[in-house]
Every structure is written in structure tokens, then in C-alpha cells.
Design a protein that fits this description.
- The longest helix is centred in the first third of the chain and has 21 residues.
- The two termini are about 25 Å apart.
- The C terminus is likely disordered.
- A 5-stranded mixed beta sheet has the order 4-1-3-2-5, sandwiched between helices.
- The chain has one domain: Alpha-Beta Plaits, CATH 3.30.70.
- By secondary structure, it is of the alpha+beta class.
- The chain is globular, with a radius of gyration of 14 Å.
- It binds flavin mononucleotide.
- Flavin mononucleotide binds next to helix 1, strand 2, strand 3 and helix 2.
């Protein structure tokens, strides 16, 4: 597939760091994203951890730019920085307009146990971020993996 790109950005949530507030916002985001991303052939994954959003988005450049511009105007977060943008030969998340991976899964995969320890997911090397999320989404042996997927 030619002319396909993958973007990874991070941003800071402006929402109260309350599980219900964040959970509700992620549900709303997932609902909008499911419709828009499916329409625009965008696929990706969203992660939230300790006030930080990270998202992987894949698609054709014009659709990616339009999606990023829309997301960038959203007041539920701020300080959006694109960490990585590259041309890719195929999608890592071909089946999900927007999957959700919990911070607990990322923490467990990268730090062993470590529950309750705060972790800045934005500091993970960007070259491992998308492959790590794909592994978490596709490995059935990871405990509770289905519970970590929202409307995938
Ligand atoms: C962290 C974050 C990630 C988002 N990801 C997406 C996305 O992948 N696709 C999308 O269409 N909207 C996404 N949104 C929501 C958009 O900012 C915006 O609210 C939505 O696209 C509006 O859609 P509508 O005009 O169809 O209602 C995201 C918002 C936030 C805060």
C-alpha cells in the first residue's frame, strides 16, 4: 500500500484526573472516533495514563491531517505534540478505527508489576510504542486483554 502514514502524538488531558470523568470522556471519544475514523479509513489506538493521552493513527495523509486538526482543537486536552510521523507499508491496527489500551497494560508490559506506580507513557521510545500496543491487543495470554479493549 503506498502513501500510508502512521502518526504518534502525545497530549495532556485537561480533564479532572478522576476515573469516571476520564472513562466517560474516553467513551465519548471512542464513539466519535468510531464513526469518523471508519468513514475516513483511519485506524489506531488510544492510551491514557496519569493525565497523558497517547494515540497512534494510521491512514492516508489528507485524512490523517484532517483528523489531527480536529483532535488538536479538542479542549479535553492540550499541548498536542506529534512525536513521530512516518510512511509505512501496512497498518499495524487494520481492524480498529480506535482501540483503547489501558495504562495498566502498558505499565505491566514495560515495568513488570508496578501497579500503582505512576508512569509517563510519553517517555516510552516512539519506535516501540506502536508494536507494543499491537502486541497487547493481539496476545490472548495477557490477562484481561478483552477488558482492556473498548469497542474495538
Ligand atoms: C485524546 C483524544 C483523541 C481523539 N481521537 C479521535 C479520533 O481518533 N478520531 C476522531 O474522529 N475524533 C477523535 N477525538 C475527538 C475529536 O477531538 C472530536 O471531538 C471529534 O472528532 C468530533 O467529531 P464530530 O464532529 O463528528 O462530532 C479525540 C479526542 C481526544 C481528546
Amino acid at each position: 500500500m503506498s502513501n500510508l502514514e502512521r502518526v504518534i502524538y502525545r497530549s495532556r488531558a485537561t480533564l479532572l484526573p478522576d476515573a469516571e470523568v476520564i472513562g466517560g470522556a474516553i467513551d465519548d471519544i471512542a464513539e466519535a472516533a468510531r464513526a469518523n475514523n471508519a468513514r475516513d479509513a483511519i485506524t489506531g489506538v488510544l492510551v491514557y495514563s496519569d493525565g497523558v493521552f497517547m494515540q497512534v493513527l494510521e491512514g492516508r495523509p489528507p485524512a490523517l491531517d484532517a483528523t489531527l486538526a480536529r483532535i488538536g482543537k479538542d479542549r479535553r486536552h492540550k499541548d498536542l505534540h506529534v512525536l513521530r510521523r512516518e510512511t509505512v507499508s501496512g497498518r499495524m491496527f487494520p481492524d480498529t478505527p480506535l482501540a483503547f489500551v489501558s495504562s495498566a497494560m502498558v505499565r505491566e508490559a514495560t515495568m513488570g508489576s508496578g501497579r500503582g506506580i505512576s508512569m509517563d507513557i510519553g517517555r516510552l521510545p516512539t519506535e516501540i510504542f506502536a508494536p507494543l500496543l499491537r502486541t497487547l491487543l493481539t496476545t490472548p495470554s495477557v490477562p484481561n486483554v478483552t477488558g482492556m479493549l473498548r469497542r474495538a
